[in-house]
Write a structure and sequence with these properties.
The protein has 404 residues and is an all-alpha fold. The protein has a single domain (6-397), classed as Orthogonal Bundle (Proton glutamate symport protein). It has helices at 6-23, 32-61, 64-96, 120-126, 132-137, 141-155, 160-185, 188-204, 207-239, 245-251, 253-262, 265-280, 284-297, 300-316, 323-339, 346-358, 365-397. Bound molecules: aspartic acid.
Length: 404
């Protein structure tokens, strides 16, 4: 009997999990463990995988010149697409005005609102880990990436007889991590069933009232995300990357569905690395450099969301933002998206950066709390989608041949 392709299995799991979460809400406790096991397995892979993939990517890229060129391309892509995303959000939120007349009484309380208050300079300084083991233990992605790039860069500057076995060892570690990834991937449908039925059951009671009170806000976010994901990025992919967006999308179905279900770019990273290398055909050097950094820094969906959410809060409180202030929102939304970790609901807390910058009440975050986890699913999918398009575009610009 032919086996059902994994992305179909996942889609079926997704549909079943929604039904299960809605109908058998009380029984969801018996399946959440599947989601926990799956997420833990993915998280277990992240640190060694990021480290090995970056070292093996950077040693493959070789010279400082090549590395410099890749960095410029990568960051230009990250910045350009994030700004496009924010502007799309800005347009949508001004068009639909979801915050006008929003009920401030629906506001919830959010803990840890000052978490994003660290200065930008300090955030940059913090990228340098004082202790790499501590950074790894804390899943501090930017610090791990920073150290791994340095490690890779200097690996190819040592004596050849020492260098060769080291490079081989890291390539081998990467291969092993990928094998474990492939093994974990097989359990995606079960993991997703556990995660999504849990999320659905938590929102099951107030679905209708949420749709009534937050419907237009959700529409603004999802509408703008759709424009960015289905129009802007595919255009860039086909014009600059000369790739077929539809084929690319198909190659990415597994990580995209996983991003949607887990709401975590980090947890999805092992699957993204696998799909971009094997299905899209991007080289190890490029994926190793672009994707781990992308999962942490390049968050188009989050950037867009930050902008829409901040303006929604302003509208709800009846605060008119000047053009200058909207400009500040755009810039700080970019910073907030860079600062947000690739974990569920990270985008919710970093909104405080924007609110502080334009003088909006921090409690406003409570207004968007109820639907954040749902919108997170959509924005995380766009985050991962943009990373994958970036990898393909950069690979193409480096003269690589792609399968899409
Ligand atoms: N959950 C998102 C991600 O992992 C970050 C966010 O909360 O916006 O990409």
């Amino acid at each position: 009997m032919p086996k059902l392709a994994l992305h179909w299995q996942i889609l079926i799991a997704l549909v079943l999990s929604v039904v299960f979460g809605l109908v058998f809400t009380d029984y969801v406790v018996y399946v959440t463990w599947m989601g926990d096991v799956f997420l833990r397995a993915l998280r277990m892979l992240i640190v060694p995988l990021i480290f090995a993939s970056i070292v093996s990517g950077v040693t493959g890229i070789g010279t400082a010149r090549n590395l410099g060129r890749m960095s410029v391309k990568t960051f230009s892509y990250y910045l350009t697409t994030s700004i496009f995303a924010i502007l799309t959000g800005l347009f949508m939120v001004n068009l639909l005005q979801p915050g006008r007349g929003a009920d401030l009484g629906l506001s919830g309380r959010v803990e840890g609102l000052d978490a994003g208050a660290e200065s930008f300079g300090q955030t940059l300084i913090n990228i340098i880990p004082v202790n790499i083991v501590e950074a790894m233990a804390a899943d501090n992605m930017l610090s791990i990436i920073f150290f791994a790039i340095l490690f890779g860069f200097f690996t190819i500057r040592i004596r050849t007889d020492l260098q060769k076995p080291l490079v081989k060892a890291f390539n081998a570690i990467f291969e092993v991590m990928m094998r474990i990834t492939m093994f974990v991937i097989r359990f995606t449908p079960l993991g997703i069933f556990g995660i999504v039925s849990n999320v659905v059951s938590q929102h099951a009671d107030n679905m209708v009232s949420l749709a009534n009170s937050m419907g237009i806000y959700m529409l603004a976010v999802i509408g703008a995300l759709s424009i960015h994901a289905l129009l802007t990025l595919p255009l860039l992919l086909s014009i600059i990357g000369r790739a077929n967006p539809l084929k690319h999308f198909r190659s990415m179905s597994l990580p995209l569905l996983t991003a949607f279900s887990t709401s975590s770019s980090n947890a999805t990273l092992p699957l993204t690395l696998e799909a971009v290398e094997h299905n899209v055909g991007v080289s190890r050097e490029t994926t190793g450099f672009v994707l781990p950094m992308g999962a942490t820094v390049n968050m188009d969906g989050t950037a867009l969301y930050e902008c829409v959410a901040a303006l929604f809060i302003a509208q709800a409180y009846g605060i008119e933002l000047s053009l200058m202030q909207q400009g500040i929102v755009v810039l700080t939304a970019l910073l907030a998206s860079i600062g947000a970790a690739g974990i569920p609901m990270a985008g919710l807390v970093v909104i405080t950066i924007i609110l502080t910058a334009v003088g909006l009440p921090l409690e406003g975050v409570g207004l968007i709390l109820a639907v954040d986890r749902i919108l997170d699913m959509f924005r995380t999918t766009v985050n991962v989608w943009s990373d994958s398009c970036g990898a393909a575009i950069i690979a193409r610009s480096e003269g690589e041949k792609l399968k899409v």
